[in-house]
Write a structure and sequence with these properties.
The chain has 368 residues and is an alpha/beta fold. It has three domains: 147 residues, P-loop containing nucleotide triphosphate hydrolases (Rossmann fold); 68 residues, Helicase, Ruva Protein, domain 3; 87 residues, Arc Repressor Mutant, subunit A (Orthogonal Bundle). The chain is 45% helix and 13% strand. The protein contains 16 helices and eleven strands. The longest helix is centred in the C-terminal third of the chain and has 18 residues. The protein starts with 32 loop residues before the first helix and ends with a helix. The N terminus and C terminus are likely disordered.
């Protein structure tokens, strides 16, 4: 039975950058103004300080060392992965390791080929150009970037119509570091022009504990092993979220206790901020509770689920669902969203008899 006016799955593509709602969440991966300022102070300055991503660090170290030994600029680098895993930090480390300045911009800021031409023509030799969300560049700028990356040249069009003239502009050798959260949206000709590509993985809890201890030292925060472990376990495998939770727990410890972050203080603080032991926040639990209590575990269409939690469909699809799917609490099926047995267990709810009988987490009513 179709319980959604736009279809049971209703998975139209959302705005590429994702909704702004994630920036307001304590466990959101998007950086806000405060995060940006704090991250600048907490960022490691070289590969030796960078925690996690061992394969990427090893491979990137070889690329940069070889370039320095040759006295050449490093190959273009493409970094992909979820927000908050360290792509911007690695771009700054690449510039530092090469002893070169870095220029930072983003795909959405480059909407015309002229915008890109102005940036490229002002680069110095060996400079690193960091292009965040590279998949969101306009197509004309993208096509100009092909030639710039491969031949260090761009053609500037002067005039219009039959009298238009292409003037070639030579560029000094530079290193482009592209970052994307959606590598699949990059066209193959652009991907193929990167000499080194790396995918950033989510962090293990032990790695996040190391990140937290380092950040605590830099922020002059006292935390014990158990306190750092408690925060790491709720950080969704993302250093940015771990650092954000650390700051909020620090505030709680400062106001409610002696300023030392222990396991108990961390639990109390994160309970106040509605972040549970698996890292789910209010929105995540609202999606699960609606799916389980209103729709008996599904399947249910995305738009219907979004109405039930009082959010835009893009917010549910882009902000809440990825983590719930990764945690094995929700599944996307051709007929709609379905809760897993783990979701029932996490919210301490008993699935209907028909769900227990077939172990699918679905009922006959919503599975028709």
């Amino acid at each position: 039975m179709n319980w959604d006016d736009t279809g049971p799955d209703d998975s139209a593509t959302a705005t590429p950058g994702g909704p702004d709602a994630s920036a307001e969440r304590l466990v959101g991966s998007v950086a806000d103004g405060e995060d940006t300022a704090v991250e600048a102070a907490l960022r490691p300055k070289d590969l030796g300080e960078f925690v996690g991503q061992p394969k990427v660090r090893e491979q990137l170290d070889l690329v940069l060392r070889a370039a320095r030994q040759r006295g050449a600029t490093a190959d273009h680098v493409l970094l992909s992965g979820a927000p908050g895993l360290g792509k911007t930090t690695l771009s700054m480390i690449i510039a530092a390791e090469m002893g070169a300045p870095i220029r930072i911009t983003s795909g959405p800021a480059i909407q015309h080929a002229g915008d890109l031409a102005a940036i490229l023509s002002s680069l110095q030799e060996g400079e690193v150009l960091f292009l965040d969300e590279i998949h969101r560049m306009s197509r004309p700028a993208e096509e100009m970037l092909y030639m710039a990356m491969e031949d260090f040249r761009v053609d500037v069009i002067v005039g219009k119509g039959p009298g238009a003239t292409a003037i070639p502009l030579e560029l000094p050798p530079f290193t482009l570091v592209g970052a994307t959260t959606r590598a699949g949206l990059l066209p193959p000709p652009l991907r193929d022009r990167f000499g080194f590509t790396a995918h950033m993985e989510f962090y293990e809890a032990e790695e996040l504990e190391r990140v937290l201890h380092r950040s605590a030292r830099l922020l002059d925060v006292s935390t014990d092993e158990a306190g750092a472990r408690e925060i790491a376990g709720r950080s969704r495998g993302t250093p940015r979220i771990a650092n954000r939770l650390l700051r909020r727990v620090r505030d709680y410890a400062q106001v409610k206790s002696d300023g030392v972050i222990t396991s108990e203080i961390a639990r109390q603080a994160l309970a106040v901020y509605e972040v549970d032991e698996r890292g789910l926040d209010r929105l995540d639990r609202a999606v699960l509770e609606s799916l389980l209590k209103l729709f008996n575990g599904g399947p249910v269409g995305l738009s219907t689920l979004a109405v039930a939690v009082g959010e835009e469909r893009e917010t549910v699809e882009e902000v809440a669902e990825p983590f719930l799917v990764r945690e094995g609490l929700l599944a996307r099926t051709p007929r709609g969203r379905v809760a897993t047995p783990a979701a029932w267990a996490h919210l301490n709810l008993t699935p209907p008899a028909s769900s227990r009988a077939n172990g699918s987490g679905q009922t006959g009513l919503f599975g028709m």
